[in-house]
Specification:
By secondary structure, the chain is of the alpha+beta class. The protein contains nine helices and 13 strands. The strands form two sheets. Strands 1, 4, 5, 6, 7, 8, 9, 10, 11, 12 and 13 form an eleven-stranded mixed sheet that branches. The chain is globular, with a radius of gyration of 19 Å. Bound molecules: ligand DP6.
Length: about 325
């Protein structure tokens, strides 16, 4: 059976997925909108091997029990829903990221997108982007967007079949840059999956649900018009609204580190000097700073010079997952 290697990119949510109306199917409470990030990538090789008696899963050179169990459950979904060609039931999976995992940079998004695509192709199963999105979503919500390219919308849906993502603008529609300020490379203490479960305990969650659909429509219109300043303001406000829910959930989630706050202040200082830069943060402490190509190196230099920033990564709008000829084993 063919060994298959897929490169999939992570994304940054401009309008965030937070809270699930169905935890098992991973149906989100609201639709979301993201940019796929070329530069924050996962490469995964999968081979279904008749000689294996269980899955053999290695991520970033290690076989962590929690991670291998989550990946194994996703392979179970594939085993249950499709027939694997030539009867091999277990897979060898090797995966690596170009960026630190578990730090708020959506490694589960690129990871489960690459895994879903590689594992199905390696099993001789060809899925449409919509089918891949539905399947990837059940591994990690973000992965449902990461099987697409460019600017991506995830329709929340009421059923598994209607909760999927699609590209609303291709990667070359608008050149937006993301400079990621890495303030720590250690793993975060709480996973997004645990955080989603607490979303409903915040008194602000209901208020968010009342305006999130219209906020998503506004964001789409601002992308259509390429209005970077208005989109940036909206994205930053959305990030702060999202974190206000984290702060007021039970248990409360204070995810920012001192370096995260330093970056936020620097971004606001740059804006007061006329530099178009806007921050957003997921469930973690590392900070995405969106800017335009003309300002990318300046923004990168300013962030890299901050005492609490360990390093910066740069990404541009990326395309859908791609097949690679070079395998990881
Ligand atoms: C804050 O997709 O990581 O990054 O579905 O449980 O795997 P699971 O959660 P995950 O949640 C991402 C939340 C977010 C917002 C977003 O990317 O939309």
């Amino acid at each position: 059976m063919p060994k298959t290697t897929i490169k999939a990119s992570s994304d940054i949510a401009l309008i965030k997925y937070w809270g699930k109306k169905d935890e098992v199917l991973r149906l989100p409470e609201n639709g979301s909108l993201s940019i796929i990030l070329d530069g924050l990538d996962t490469i995964t090789t999968v081979e279904w091997q008749a000689s294996l008696t269980k899955d053999d899963i290695t991520i970033q050179g290690t076989q962590d029990a929690l991670e291998t169990s989550r990946v194994g459950k996703h392979l179970d979904r594939i085993r249950q829903n499709y027939s694997i060609e030539k009867g091999a039931q277990y897979a060898k999976v090797v995966s690596k990221n170009s960026f630190p995992k578990g730090t708020g940079l959506s490694s589960s998004g690129s990871g489960f997108a690459a895994l879903t695509y590689a594992a199905t192709l390696a099993a001789g199963i060809t899925l449409s982007t919509k089918e891949l999105s539905i399947l990837a979503r059940q591994g990690s919500g973000t992965a449902c967007r990461c099987v697409c390219g460019g600017f991506v919308e995830w329709h929340d849906g009421q059923t598994s079949e209607t909760s999927f993502s699609e590209t609303i603008f291709p990667f070359d529609f608008w050149d937006i840059c993301d400079v990621v300020a890495v303030v720590d490379e250690g793993m975060k203490k709480i996973s997004s999956t645990e955080g989603h479960e607490a979303a409903h305990t915040s008194p602000f969650f209901t208020a968010r649900q009342q305006h999130i659909a219209s906020k998503l429509q506004t964001a789409k219109a601002l992308i259509t018009d390429k209005n970077f300043a208005a989109l940036g303001e909206l994205v930053e406000a959305e990030c702060l609204e999202f974190h206000s829910i984290l702060l007021t959930s039970q248990p409360p989630m204070v995810l920012w580190y001192p370096g995260s706050v330093q970056v936020m202040h620097e971004v606001q200082a740059m804006r007061s000097e006329g530099i178009p830069a806007y921050f957003t943060i997921n469930t973690g402490f590392n900070v995405h700073v969106l800017t335009l190509p003309k300002y990318e190196s300046l923004v990168q230099e300013r962030l890299a010079a901050l005492p609490l920033v360990k390093k910066t990564l740069t990404a541009k709008v990326g395309s859908a997952p791609q097949s690679l000829d070079q395998h990881l084993f």
